[in-house]
Structures are given as structure tokens and as C-alpha cells.
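Can't paste images in this forum, so I'm doing it all in text. The chain is below; anyone willing to post the predicted C-alpha cells underneath?
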Amino acid sequence: MNNITVGLKKFLSNKNTVTIVGVIAAIVVLYVGYNWRVKQATNPITVPYALQEIDPSTQITEDMVGETQVPPAMLKSEVVRSKQSVIDKYSRADTVIPAGSLFYSSVVVEKDQLPDSIILDYPKGYVLYYMTVNMTTTYSNSIYPDNYIDLYFKATYASGDENDPNNGKVMVGKLLENVKVLAVRDSNGKNVFSNVNENSVPAMLIFAVPEEHYILLKKAGYLKNYSTELSPVPTAESLKTNPGDLKLSSNDIKNFINSVTVWTDTVE
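Text version of the structure:
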């Protein structure tokens, strides 16, 4: 055993031997590294692709997505490599994804990234209503999408009769309740909460109501001679398992608004 150890030490102490061993080791490392890089460049990778043409702003469902294998060298950095990263996302609003195309991260977006995403979230037969707000009326920007609000109506009663004891009095009451907020936008139409670092100021709340209530809200907004105001008041309705239905809260206010406006089948 000692002879073997002594012989090994002599062998390793020989400069020529060390050089040869080093060269061999370097060749082995280069060979292994080269083969690893070749395999990395040629071994196919499974990626998702479109089984059919996908129109803009379309939800991508599982039956629209297939999988295929392609060499890594053909893949650009923005190619989506996981099927699950595509399903239930949406095609960008200005892009058609051709049948057979790979998916790219620049054209696959979340629903709230679509400019018209709010039109996907309200019941049939409802009408979108844009309500002007500011930091004060939104409680320092404390009203979020999917929150529920009640809408309060204020008007200065003006009968035109100086002897009317109610002339000049202020009417305040709840007009609608359980109104679901779909979006909060700034003055440029951008989502206030899309980037918290921008400190966006809310300028409008967007929600949807039945057409009858929409017409009532529009009428209320046009009653300038009565100094009318609509005010959103946040509620805890969104915390409930089954939030209550949107409903009219005051027939008295409804009757007042209708009594000082002219009925029409359409609203400009």
C-alpha cells in the first residue's frame, strides 16, 4: 500500500504528467460543456400554440390551446412557454392571434388590462353610468372596483310659491342602494389603482344600472335649477357572501325627479 502511495506521489509530482492530466481534464470539460450546450439548443421544448384564430379581446379557453415541441433556438424571450400561463387570459384589444401561432407575452393580457374590460362585467339589460367624483366624494380614494355603494340624492326644493313653507328647503335621501362599482378612472380614463406609484386622482366611478334607473340618474343630473347632487356612499355589502340586489330606495325622490322633467323614450 505504501509503495502505491509513493508511486502515485511521484507520478503526480512529474510536471509533464500534471500537464497531460490538465489537458485531458480541460478536453473533458470542454466536451461535456459543448454537448450540454448542444442539447440545450436542440432538445425540443413544449410550448402552447393557438388551435384557432383568436379575435381581439377574446378570453382564451382550453379548447383554443394546443401544445407543440420546438427547438429552443427558435424561441424568443417573450414566447409564453406554459399552457397554464395562457388559459383564461385574454388576447390584446388590438391583436388577432392567428391559428397555429405561438403565444407571446405582449399579446396575452389579464382581463383588467383590456380598455373595454368593464363591458364584460355587468348584467344584460343594464346600462353603464359614469359618475363624476373627486377625492372628497370618494372618501380620499377609498372606493374600489367591486365595492358596493349607495347613491344619495340632494336637491333644493323650489315650488315657485313664496307662500309655500317647503319652498327653498333641501331634500336629501337615499335614491339607489347596492350599486356595484365596476371601475374607478382618473381624468385621462386610466384605472386609478393600476399603478399605486402614480398617485392618480379619481375623476369618475363607473357602474351599471337597469335602464329605468339610468334614465332617472340622467334626469337628476340635468336638474341644474334645483342644485341637485348625487353622492356615492360606500357600504360593507361586498363583504357579504350574497350581496343584496340593486334597488330603488325612495319612490318619493323618484316621483319628484319625474315631476320636474319631461318623459322621453330616449336619453341624449
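The chain is about 25% helix and 25% strand. The first helix runs from residue 2 to 13.
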